[in-house]
């Protein structure tokens, strides 16, 4: 069994693209990747560390595959899982809802006994509001804007993964 499971939902391909960048950076020998549109979410239980890729649609809604999977997600045992959230959004055209899905997913999962890693700083973004915002300085996870800032994606992913793995290592020392 591999240690890290990457699960994503994607309509336009942006979240899929980011998921595969993460998958390759982590290493195909250390992780598995799943498109939730054709995967049973029960597979989540096979991993201790989970990366969830979630894009935001329309006026702050979850991507449809995640929306369709919420009932199953609520039934899955996530006890003591480590979860890193990342997602795509459009900070210019949907400035009032930028990456809301990350915040929606965070609020669903925080009710379970999970450990979140990978808060991301709110710098170099220009948006009106976001449910992904933890506080004035951080998002709950990595926010990507492939529509307006694709040139920053790889740099953001690299920095975020370093942060995530530092936090994971620190968690394992405590557990």
TrEMBL record:
Does the UniProt entry include the keyword Zinc? no
InterPro entries assigned? Flavodoxin, Flavodoxin/NO_synth, Flavodoxin_lc, Flavoprotein-like_sf
Q: Where is the Flavodoxin-like domain?
A: 4-165
Cited SUPFAM superfamilies: Flavoproteins
Q: Flavoprotein among the record's keywords?
A: yes
A GO MF annotation of the entry reads: electron transfer activity
A Pfam entry, by short name: Flavodoxin_1
Q: Which terms are listed as keywords in the entry?
A: Electron transport, Flavoprotein, FMN, Transport
Cofactor(s) needed, names only, are: FMN
The Swiss-Prot or TrEMBL record describes its family as follows: Belongs to the flavodoxin family.
Role according to the record: Low-potential electron donor to a number of redox enzymes.
Name the record gives this protein? Flavodoxin
